[in-house]
Write a structure and sequence with these properties.
This protein is of the alpha/beta class. Helices cover about 40% and strands about 20% of the residues.
Length: about 210
């Protein structure tokens, strides 16, 4: 029986990449999106790509970051799926290589139990181009999942994970139910459930 569900945020619970929305504000959306795609497809080291992309955001007003973070488009079915999983008794958590400004706000809307993500450094109301946090590396999600499983007393077989990109591979290694959601081929190859449509409620029929 499943006890723990862990979802990626960008392009899984939310329809898009948070950092690309920020970059668009600075007129560098295409440039950052290209780096994001390379990282999510597994062709670029996640840590290096994150630092590179956040560096390009230097100077963006933090008030703009907050505004964008609070107006992101959620994936169809996200709220309903989380509510149903919690009704079934699961703990639902969000792991994101993105940012607390987005995942913290989304938690109050979507209703998951906790979020682990990264924090954009700001000084005097503007982004400095620096970032730190829980999900900085390609192995971070797997590492955090193992720790959560130990704390909660949950086994791999009792764990569901759902994501779309290469930085979700490390958590796939520690879960019995591995859902690739509108995912890159590198992640689909390790999944045992593949969802091709942008509707998270389809997960509920498969588990």
């Amino acid at each position: 029986m499943l006890k723990l569900a862990v979802f990626d945020f960008d392009s899984t619970l939310m329809d898009g990449e948070t950092i690309d929305f920020f970059a668009t504000e600075l007129g560098i959306g295409e440039k950052v999106a290209k780096i994001t795609e390379e990282a999510m497809s597994g062709r670029l080291d996640f840590f290096e790509s994150l630092q590179q992309r956040v560096g390009l955001l230097k100077g963006l007003d933090y008030s703009v970051v907050e505004k964008i973070s609070q107006n992101l488009p959620f994936m169809p079915g996200a709220k309903e799926t989380i509510a149903e999983l919690k009704r079934r008794g699961l703990t639902v958590v969000c792991f994101s290589g993105g940012f607390r400004s987005a995942t913290g706000y989304a938690k109050s809307i979507l209703g998951y139990d906790a979020d682990f993500s990264n924090v954009l450094h700001e000084k005097n109301g503007k982004l400095t181009g620096l970032v730190g946090g829980d999900m900085m590396f390609s192995h971070s999600k797997g590492d955090m999942l193992e720790r959560l499983q130990n704390i909660l007393g949950v086994s791999q077989e009792e764990t569901l994970v759902c994501g779309d990109g290469a930085n979700d591979l490390s958590m796939f290694a520690h879960a019995g139910t591995r859902i690739a959601f509108c995912a890159r081929p590198v992640l689909e190859a390790e999944a045992n459930i593949i969802i091709k449509e942008k509707d998270l409620t389809l997960i509920l029929e498969k588990i």
